[in-house]
Predict the structure.
Amino acid sequence: QVTLVESGGGSAQAGGSLRISCTSSRNIYMVNSIGWFRQAPGKEREFIASMGSGGATKYDDSVEGRFTLSRDYFSNTVHLQMNRLQPEDTAVYYCAADLDGSAPYDFWGQGTQVTVSS
């Protein structure tokens, strides 16, 4: 079991930056993967980025080069730095945990709203 809490988010102008964070109740070295997803109004939830326990990262093409993952071992937190934000990045952002690679992401945070205005 793991509890995830997102923080950060808020509003930004197009071209601006925001950082959102996901704090895990479990040591992030012991979590197979932390993923970030987003869901815009009227759309399905989509994968945007993930970080494995070894630090390997994956990004969806829509955010590659603009969004960057990092982590803080002491606080068990994974950060998503979002630069060059666009209005289409507006969504509720969720982090999720895949504990051991045997199942899809099965633990989810509550979500945090990101709104980008033009």
Summary: Residues 13 and 117 are 5 Å apart (CA to CA).
